[in-house]
Write a structure and sequence with these properties.
107 residues, mainly alpha
Length: 107
């Protein structure tokens, strides 16, 4: 009886630990927004709103966001402060995309 109870407790503890640690590093909002911003950049290229230099610069910003996201997840926990920082970076990147797409330059 004790062995069985111990086995169930260990299994429950392991499952809980894995679930909690996995949930703390998930960033679905960041992933979705990053995909939308990449699509905005691609649409800007397709419509001629972005030239090659602007596109490279904006894609570099997206790559930096990806690196920042990896660094935040590296310790296994994404804190509310880290999520806030990621959102701030996303907001800045979004404004940069808008500015470049609507800067009135002839392509």
């Amino acid at each position: 009886m004790n062995t069985r109870l111990f086995s169930v407790a260990v299994a429950l503890l392991a499952t809980t630990h894995l679930t909690v640690s996995h949930a703390q590093t998930r960033t679905p909002g960041v992933n979705a927004r990053q995909a939308r911003q990449e699509a905005r950049i691609n649409r800007g290229v397709a419509t001629g709103q972005l030239n090659a230099r602007e596109t490279a610069r904006l894609q570099g910003r997206e790559a930096n966001l990806q690196a920042e996201k990896r660094a935040v997840k590296a310790d296994g926990v994404v804190t509310p402060q880290e999520r806030h920082q990621l959102r701030r970076t996303e907001n800045r990147d979004s404004r940069a995309i808008h500015r470049q797409k609507h800067d009135g330059q002839v392509r």
